[in-house]
Amino acid sequence: MPFKPVEQAKCPKCGKSVYAAEEMLAAGQKWHKTCFKCGLCHKRLDSTNATEHGGELYCKQCYGRKFGPKGYGFGGGAGCLSMDKGEHLGNTECSMANKPTLDPTYG
């Protein structure tokens, strides 16, 4: 009877085998510790701040920014309103029709 090695789980991010010493569990899959990062800001994740959407991992802040409620009334007041759409993190799905423009004649 020939020896058959045990088939190791493949990391969804890099596609390489994940061994027990380096595995992180999330979204029903095994990930390398080095691949266990947010899909937008690339911040290292752990079990307390990892969320999943469509097979991709996100930190809770980026997940809320990308998939959370949008519009007036979800920020909790004027102090929480922001013009940040996450463009510096690679988010291009949000569009603003009333985007402010810089007027060169305005001092």
TrEMBL record:
One of its GO terms (molecular function) is structural constituent of muscle. Signal peptide: none annotated. It holds the Pfam family LIM. Transmembrane segments: none annotated. GO terms for biological process: muscle organ development; muscle tissue development; sarcomere organization. InterPro entries: Znf_LIM. The keyword Nucleus applies. SMART domains: LIM. GO terms for cellular component: nucleus; Z disc. Residues 9-69 form the LIM zinc-binding domain. It is found in: Nucleus. Its main location: nucleus. Keywords: LIM domain, Metal-binding, Myogenesis, Nucleus, Repeat, Zinc. PANTHER family: MUSCLE LIM PROTEIN MLP84B, RHO-GTPASE-ACTIVATING PROTEIN LRG1. This is LIM zinc-binding domain-containing protein. It comes from Drosophila navojoa.
